[in-house]
Write a structure and sequence with these properties.
Radius of gyration of chain A: 28 Å
Strand content of chain A: 5-15%
Number of helices of chain A: 18
Order of helices and strands of chain A: HEEHHHHHHHEEHEHEHEHHEHHHHH
Structural class of chain A: mainly alpha
Largest sheet of chain A: 2 strands, antiparallel
Helix content of chain A: 55-70%
Oligomer: homotetramer
């Protein structure tokens, strides 16, 4: 049986049948409190193995007599953790309702495999710092993928924009035609937004990249644990110093991450909305690749931009996840509160949704066709009015006079060539003044930085599982 | 393979492996757009069977030559729908990724069982009005359960409150001691809040209880379908008249329902917070039943009110679901938009979460112990100050004089007996003036009304599956 | 000096200058805690006068010896309250920072005018039940106006829709052309949504229409106050029974009201979005009245639908107000908490924003022009495809065959006359089956009900101020 | 007349009186669209003067013949802008309804003072880039103050925490007693949270610190404007390159800032909640300074922590402002949309609310008394249970055995001295292992950085107003 949603507790919990109480905890209570953990936690198997390996190594070196773990015991623990990690990857590791969560499932597995040795792994650790650690390790890996995918989309938009850089496009304000613009200007406006999103993601990454391990339940332990060592083994920047904050930061960090993801989704949502408008037959500026559209089982005539619509709604979903975490945090005082369990799904789903949206958007954009004829044909005389008035100003006519002069002869503007109009504006960042080299440089810097961080982390994680 | 989260699309979607495109739709696109439907839709099996049965009966009576379905064909269709409904109940009905959703899964099943007859069921119907119908039928059933559970908790609080009606309890404002109160006043403040919540739920129920069937994609069909008949068969109040609104109402209705659920959760959250405070050892007013508390795997001394904490966080979760739907709707114009798919999970989960929270709260409250000694011991002289000042006013002393007189002799108030103090206030709705009969009457009216509605609907649904 | 925003406390509060502390409360603290009350409360002058009048009458009849107020004193109090109410209406009543809020401002004014008599008005009342009462009275009056404005817009859309009932319009799904529709179907889809919104508003109105007076700080008073009497004088349906709930309901009620307003705004936002799309020159379906559009100071060519854009954003604003109240409530336990002060601005602004949006939308729609030529010209052959396929089904062709047949000859559909197509669909609620009489009946029922409620309340309020 | 809220449009807009239409725009429309700008914009006077001065200098150096502005004209313009800036500071600058907003008010003032010269200032600029610039300049100044106030509170908590570093305090999880902790650990958990908030604020500051000037309506102008020059004069990091993104970033940036502010408020809200709990008489851990508490006009016995309650509710308010901006952005496509006007109030109010909350919290904490006796007295035997079990583990006893041994002799733990218990835990970041020097170093680095940035900006702004 697989618990897939909050609805499942209802299977157990009926007003009609009387429940038996096993041990001290009522079955219904167990179903209510475990929630979706046994499904969601499947995503945390790898993180829990890595964190446990680092903890085991630290225990083996901790200055107590006799040592909590011998070198050999540590070796055997890490070997089993390695096999669990592998099972997690191929999907054969199971978490049963009796396990409650990934932490107990792995501990039980270790004990089954190694007997008493397995029972020692939890020494000096609480479920509180363990889950905080797992979520940070998991988020770190996902944020790397998300930053790579964000960069990838930024570059895709830039290349696609460069290809159609000077194709004229009616620039709009208030959704109404405003002034001459280009496909290049439109496309790279997203590139630049995504660069800003990368900054936000990397701040979230940095705040996340600290080790809570050793905080236990938020008040430390009376053992000479070495928090710097575990932090170093897991290549975190440093331990979160204050152990109470290490626990209080749970929920806060999820919110910080979800808010950065929410910014990415805002960018994507705007992109999606623009595509939905510009692919309506009344516009026909762009044609989405057929493989990214769906028909209708009842309407033979349909080609719907479902992918774009769902990106737009996923933005609302990711924002709602952030809202959920903020509300949970607002209602609770310091110290671990069980409420925090409900920030797990928002985080995991928010990361997954954002990554999926970025990847599918990049593939869709890359294959989108630009219909230059339709774009050029959509220029009406009014679109050139402002440029004309400003040009008169450049010739010394006071603006108000220029404005009225242009307004009285709107018809005469028809003759303006849109291609000419967009070339004529040349200052920094405008249609004729876009600096694609600047974008390439940024992109290249990000690429190098992200690749190096990925190598650094991957190498350390592999080393860790081979230690000692 | 079971898709449990948005993360699953990532299994299919990798930047490394090249995907093949089957038919016109790319595999990644399919994974992205189908989302969690194949899991979530398992909850809609019964509703889809009921709706399809009503639609089949209508088709068999529709005045076209030849009839779309004969009486016999209709009979056979309903028989198969009956067996699918049963499979849905016991959990053996499957929705495959190829099916995409419950609607096609059932249609495919019908066609497998009945050949060409099955292919006719979709005549004059679109997936748009079909899913709108399913969600309304599903929500109707769940809202009935939720209203029953809300009433049940209201009654539980009332009975528990009546049992301890005159046990004195320090009334608080600003979380600080304020004036004498009672356990009865505190407990029935929730009873009354839940009665208000029932009003909100019943308004949502009523708006939900209309049939969208026949709206097709929002523009009707050029066939003489009988929308009143299907509405009647499914005992809806009436069809949503305007077919475009029948489709536009999707999302709006989910939001209305989630906002009513959100109000229930606000009431529960406040209840939970009060319990968390009053069960801290510093208060000790109440003791939660041990079966509803959890210990700690590391701290031998713990008895934690996890259930209450999770009720508090579930309130934030349900609010976030409402927020999600509102944001989705804000961003989209008229007519069906694919974005609406993402309002399904919020609705289903919001209903399940609220129901589970109500049921567990009722069971927990019923077994909660009241520690009268601790409650009485917590009265400090200041708590009686206001009553004393007001009493002086009743004796003709101007309030400001009374206030200062009392303030200057706060110590002398210690002698007041809390039991006496709470008996002395007798006007409507105060500690000594609570009318439990009034609550019983309300409760009884609701009980009768809800039971009758349930009978009405259950009887009709059973009749429907036996028709014709 | 007028405090207009949270920013004003900053004027008082500087890290550089040392503040003096007057009495026990620090100036900065006063500025921080009073917040915007002295501005916002100007809206509550009338409500506070009405509530105080009812309270005075009750005090004069309360069975204590000597009576708290004599008949003559009550008369004089009500006379002064009448003049304050008038000052409030014409905008000459002032609330000073020293007053802190409307309640003290009015009490101070009474005491200034009547000496010791004024000091008695607060007997048996707390600021908590007083503000709860004021907000309910204020919201009742505003909700009446809002329900009237909602009905007005519903009727406007219906009449405008009826006038253009059979003008063909391309029906859309996924923002793409889908099937034949009409201006009438589109317009009345909003009429029907607004009727649903009226149901939600009236539920909020009903929950609001109960008297909290006499709850004092949530625990009643040791005086024989007559809560039924004040409730009757103010024509509430009944008193909120439980005095603790009367105070706990603050915030909850604001949220209920804001969620109903939010639903109205969702309807308006969708209307606004549709107008923004259909008035783009690429569509040109409708032309907004020039008086409702704004030009640009720099672009001579612009006619922008600012009103529609701002209605869309106001929907987000009203939703955010609801979110604010929900979050405030989630974080606080039972009993009055000062947090509730921050639900006042959301309520007042939410009511005002919704009313302003409804009124301006109604005026704008009424004068919007329908361009039938553009609407008819936008029909492409594909739009008729589904109808054609369904018609074949009606003639006995299996749907899949019909679907493929139509798809292979999409070009041949061009000959279909849109006017004919929308007439041909005649079942309930579709293009040719709209029942405008039904809408008129609903509208007429609502009109009668709202007018009668307004008369009932207005008459009672006038009587009250003339009593005794 | 001062417009203070959305309600004001209602004064103009009545269904009863017929409005006259002045010019092309209806009065009601003007009231609806101008909204609160004429009040809110008073905060932008200084920013608009600075931006206009930079723009004027750029115009005077722009390579067109004849120059748009001569050196002398520029000098005169800047002189008048200087006097307007001063009027803004002392509160004598007015924006009339006819002005609509600060931009026209200042332009009108310039024209009044300088005739035709004033009319040239708007050359090559649109209201769109102008308001985007003003908001960035305003936010930059406020964010500096907010970062300083955040640092100030972090340092206050650290010093207060250091003073009471080793005072024992019961550490809690699930709001229940858990393990020994200290006032120092609790206090510095906030210091560390605030350091994280500083990182988030500084990322927002950096994204904000770019110049949109020259983007005009989002499509640039056909004049050789020098966007690098204006950016340099206003000491921005650089211009936002893509002119369309410069406009699209409006709203996004507000959201980024509000999300960073929301994180600060989350920290403050938790602090406030802890204070509210620990100052209840049942705890009595801390005593808030009397000047920061308010009494009750009716209850002689009250000392309420209003400031803390309002900080908690302001957190909800600031979150709602962020939500408002997110929703507005989600609903709109690329290009300036009027909806963005409604992101102005959330930004201005969010900045002001956060700053006021930080400042008052710092003053309140600094004077809060620690009641060591109450803190020590609250230790019950169970609080030491975990430490004892872990210590046994350190002595070689398997954890499960240790756990059961401790549980069976909970009573014997009573003898443990809390002071001893908190000293005994010495690893990094726990009660006995806090590194205050580390915090001092961080604080000192931030102090230096913030002071240097403030000097850099202030100097440049002063130079600008003296130029040329």
């Amino acid at each position: 049986l697989v618990l897939v949603s909050f609805s499942d507790p209802l299977l157990f919990m009926s007003t009609r049948t009387k429940k038996t109480t096993v041990g001290t905890i009522d079955d219904d209570v167990l179903a209510f409190t475990a929630g979706k953990d046994i499904v969601l936690d499947l995503q945390l198997v790898e993180a829990d193995c890595l964190g446990s390996a680092a903890h085991a190594i630290m225990l083996s070196r901790m200055k107590v007599k006799p040592p909590v773990l011998t070198k050999d015991e540590t070796k055997r623990i890490i070997a089993v953790l390695g096999s669990i990690r592998e099972m997690g990857r191929i999907g054969t590791f199971k978490i049963t309702p009796a396990d409650q969560d990934v932490h107990l499932a792995i501990e039980n597995h270790l004990t089954l495999a190694l007997g008493d040795i397995g029972k020692k792994i939890h020494t000096g650790r609480s479920r509180n710092d363990q889950v905080a650690l797992d979520l940070r390790l998991f988020a770190r890996a996902r944020l790397q993928e998300i930053m790579e995918a964000t960069l990838d989309l930024a570059v895709t938009m830039m290349r696609w924009g460069k290809k159609h850089a000077m194709v004229p496009m009616v620039g709009r304000t208030h959704m109404q035609p405003a002034m001459p613009s280009t496909v290049g200007l439109w496309a790279t406006s997203f590139t630049e937004a995504l660069f800003d999103d990368l900054e936000l993601l990397s701040t979230a990454y940095r705040l996340n990249n600290r080790s809570p391990l050793g905080a236990a339940a938020g008040y430390g332990v009376p053992l000479p644990i070495d928090r710097e060592l575990t932090s170093r083994l897991l290549v975190f920047e440093e331990p979160v110093h204050n152990v109470m904050y290490a626990i209080n930061a749970r929920g806060k960090l999820e919110t910080v991450i979800l808010e950065a993801l929410g910014q990415v989704m805002l960018t994507l949502s705007r992109l999606a909305q623009d595509f939905m408008i510009y692919t309506m037959p009344e516009f026909g500026y762009f044609t989405l690749p057929p493989a990214f559209c769906t028909g209708s089982s009842i309407m033979p005539n349909k080609q719907n931009p479902d992918v774009m619509e769902l990106i737009r709604s996923r933005a609302a979903v990711v924002h709602a996840y952030g809202q959920c975490c903020r509300s949970i945090l607002l209602a609770a005082p310091s110290g671990y509160n069980r409420d925090l369990q409900d920030t797990k799904e928002p985080l995991l789903e928010g990361l997954a949704s954002t990554l999926a949206s970025l990847r599918i958007a990049a593939r869709c954009v890359a294959d989108t066709t630009v219909n230059s004829d339709r774009l050029r044909a959509s220029f009406t005389p009014g679109v050139f009015a402002t440029d004309r008035a400003v040009e008169l100003v450049g010739q010394g006519v006071p603006f108000r006079d220029a404005y009225h002069q242009v307004k009285s002869e709107l018809g005469a503007l028809a003759a303006v060539d849109p291609d000419e109009a967009v070339r004529r504006k040349t200052h920094t960042g405008t249609t004729g003044g876009l600096n694609f080299d600047l974008y390439s440089e940024y992109a290249s810097d990000w690429k190098t930085g992200l690749a190096s961080e990925r190598r650094r982390v991957d190498r350390a994680m592999n080393t860790l599982m081979k230690t000692p």
